[in-house]
Amino acid sequence: MHSDAFDRYHHHESPLHRLDPRIKVVTVVGFILSNALLPDGAWSAFALTWLFIFLLNALSELGLGYTFRRSFIALPFALAAVTVLFSIPGNALFQFHFMMWDFTVSDAGLLRFVSIVIRSWLSVQAAILLAAVTRFPDLIHAFEHLRVPAILTTIIAFLYRYLFVLTDEVMRLLRARQSRSAAAAGQKSGGGVLWRAKVSGNMAGQLFLRSYERSDRIHNAMLARGYAGHLRTLNPHELHGRDWAYAAVAFLFILAMQFVGRF
Amino acid sequence: MPITHAVEKISYPDCEGDVLKVRGLHFSYPDGHAALRGISFHLCSGDKVALVGPNGAGKSTLMLHLNGILQGRGEVEIGGLRLTRDNLPLIRSMVGLVFQNPDDQLFSPTVFEDVAFGPLHMGLPEAEVRARVDSALEAVRMTAYKERLSHHLSVGEKKRIAIATVLSMNPSILVLDEPSAGLDPRARRTLINLLRELPITMLVSTHDMRLVQELFPRTIVMDDGNIVADDLTMNILEDAELLSAHGLEKP
Amino acid sequence: MPITHAVEKISYPDCEGDVLKVRGLHFSYPDGHAALRGISFHLCSGDKVALVGPNGAGKSTLMLHLNGILQGRGEVEIGGLRLTRDNLPLIRSMVGLVFQNPDDQLFSPTVFEDVAFGPLHMGLPEAEVRARVDSALEAVRMTAYKERLSHHLSVGEKKRIAIATVLSMNPSILVLDEPSAGLDPRARRTLINLLRELPITMLVSTHDMRLVQELFPRTIVMDDGNIVADDLTMNILEDAELLSAHGLEKP
Amino acid sequence: MLYFPVEPMHIPNDYLSLAVSLVCWAVSVIVLRTAISRTNKSLGERQVPLMGVMAAFIFAAQMINFPVLGGTSGHLLGGVLAAVMLGPWAGMLAMTAVIAVQGLLFQDGGLIVMGANILNMGLLTCAIGYGLYRAVLGKSPAVKLAVIGFAAWLSVMAGALFVALQIWLSGNAELRIIVPAMLFVHAFIGLGEALITVAAVTFIMRTRPDLLAESPESSRGGRGWIFAGVLTSLVVLLLSPLASTNPDGLERVASDLGLTHTAQPAAFQVIPDYTIPFLGNTPVSTILAGAVGVIVVLAIIFITGRSLQNKKPNS
Ligand SMILES: Nc1ncnc2c1ncn2[C@@H]1O[C@H](COP(=O)(O)OP(=O)(O)OP(=O)(O)O)[C@@H](O)[C@H]1O
Ligand SMILES: Nc1ncnc2c1ncn2[C@@H]1O[C@H](COP(=O)(O)OP(=O)(O)OP(=O)(O)O)[C@@H](O)[C@H]1O
Ligand SMILES: [Mg+2]
Ligand SMILES: [Mg+2]
Asked: How many CB atoms lie within 10 A of CB A142?
């Protein structure tokens, strides 16, 4: 079995893939921040930003609609912003009653809601693109260079490596339980909720022990290869002219969006 | 010593698949990889069949279809009952699936709890559950281990307990995924004897060609999602061309 | 086909243990379980030795002593150098230990980083590290995999990369714990050929008696923390009594 | 799909105002900075693979579910389990790594709001979990399990309450609605968390009691954690009913503290999210405020990174 489904990286030889990961991280963060700073209802800026993402999609050789398609997985979260509809006073569009509350959807609320969903959706697309054109280990390197403490990046590197091993293990545990979740003919099956919860807890405990013991073995393997408490890595990354050029373009674009969005 | 099977003992193919019938089974994983490309075969009551083929042939994928953990296009019939979403729980009580790694099968702290999971989930009364656990442990000769912690057992012991966890559900067919992997010769021998004695239909995937030769009168060879041969083991093992074409070796 | 070794090719015992010498090694785990009870043996340059014995015999425990991950009572000498706390880093660069499960050995996200881990921690300069990685990957014929992510590899590929991770440290002795477990026949064959070609002293624990027969002129049998036999493989495999007493089988 | 986001608690980007997001980032960075220096100090060399694999464990364990009712299922968040098994600081780092990967790789929770997500799901849960557990360290297994179960439930409620408060402070929801709604839903989710956590710890107690040995080494936590845990719990326990039954009171407090404006007809309406007072509520002011906030946070992260870099021997 494998959990390749976890992989967000898609290998191509595009200009975006070749960019230095630091530049990619910094510009994506800048891009997302810029989105957050756009005022509600900055439609033209939203549209231009989306075009920009479209353009990057094209550059990445992933296909024009790649991030667009992928971004739908994040859409259910739009529900979380529903409360905005009722929270901003303005001209009432319609009203309804639910349990002990009265809800009023106002025009301002609607505007805010739509703006939040769009901004969030644009940001998600940028993040999806980043993960699709940057190998995760390079992403970790980038964060190392951006002075995220080494211990955190190391934990994340191990997490990433063993994510695949352990989720495979979980999948197999879940399958084993599933395949024994049987019923006799004409009989109610499943057991009580408490019992089911206990079984899940047992599985978590089981997984914990195995992970714990595995970390012991990994530590042994590291010792066997000379580890003495500090990790060393080679830095494979170098900043080129094209990286700076791209950074400059992205920065100008962000400034332009802020201008378009506000005036 | 390899046992060569007297031909008259072999009952193949003398039935219409009363225990298991698979017809035109196709399956692709979500990432688009086609793992099964039209599998058809059947098992008769009492059959003991080996499933061999190189890594990635689709053996495990096929096994996961037999009790509906995966559901592809095509038909699976267990004991004359067509597998559908509605009768999944019932089917699961008829097909006992044992995974390669016993650690994946044993998720409870004690042996008893693990063997009792199936019957408990089926909603059987307590006395019946206890009786089933006892007879399943008896069958794999691990009665003394009832109160032990699964975590501390040796691999060979775990393997046997893993088999008990499905025997306790009184399955009509046992499906084992690579049961002998990682066992030392003694544990492997014990397992072979156990499998030989269990009076139940079984389908066993393995890379261990000696096990195939010793234990299974009939062998199915899979490669790349297809069944490329389904014949008496002795015929298959004689077919050097077939073996080498599918990365297998004569024992 | 099993290869039977011509007797004149065998160089045992014609040295004083210039590569590895173990004398009177005792070890108990913290829980009091005595896993090694006085182990003594030696390896000569170029030796390829199998270490066999039932589950729990202490094979893995012994291997962990050879580069000081565990330290028991007794003496371990590598290349004439007595293993002490001070020369641990040096010893670890001389003993290449490969664990059974490649997922425990390949802990870095990419193949390159994993193979470079050892040389980097030996403090070698960058150019030297890169050269070592290249030649190690060359030796296991996985050069094309340098930039791959470890979790994408098949078990057989992982096994080979795991061997490369220690080859890159230019060890004078290779210690492998059950290298063939879980491999399909083709991958197993590739591994056997690789081990046969590597011109390096090796000690290999395994349950795979055919591997022993094919590859190793000399075999050490362990049981219950003791070495119960240390002889030419052909002699050991003929000694039916010895084999059955220690849960082994002739291939 | 193999990966499914399990908690309705990951806040996406832009659902919090920039100001609230940045404040949460600042708080998280400060706490994590301490966690890092503590674990660095007490770091047995085997802690690095241990924490990494444990983070992967939490990630994987979140996929273990059990059917509850009508197709819904219970899941594990894991903060309390991590804190009890690894100690508070290591637990926080492991949870942070999990949330970071969920955000970076799976877009489950945004980058800007990651500080808030870390605070809600990683830091609070570990503080409550370890603090309460630490208080009963010498007691009988039954007492310990009961407290762990309660802590697990409370940790989910704490996360939910903080999410609600952050959304409210961002001006995106009314207190009177969001708090009861979040708490109501999570009261049930919390039960699942409690059941799984207790069963998992019981399992470990039975199979490897040595891992739960009562040796509060320095990598675990001192008695100070009891104070931290109980205090956090009290805040959650007192604030939840207050916010649900008497939102006006809380709103008044917030506006008195300058967190929200009361000048507007509806008390909950606007917050001074990213405006600079003397420039008024103009676009320029908003941009400047945002920029200032970003600079402040970057400075904090930078200084933290530097001070840590200096402490470590060069490797
Ligand atoms: N979860 C998955 N997602 C995508 N592809 C998968 C998944 N699991 C298996 N595959 C692929 O499906 C094919 C069949 O896999 P399967 O595990 O059934 O092979 P197998 O015959 O059991 O091999 P082995 O002998 O190694 O156990 C392989 O190519 C494998 O890479
Ligand atoms: N960490 C440990 N704590 C206590 N006992 C242990 C530990 N690891 C191994 N043992 C015990 O020490 C003995 C030797 O174990 P070891 O792993 O060396 O056996 P082995 O020969 O490698 O077996 P296998 O063939 O199953 O790998 C066994 O009885 C085992 O139960
Ligand atoms: Mg398989
Ligand atoms: Mg071993």
From this structure: 21
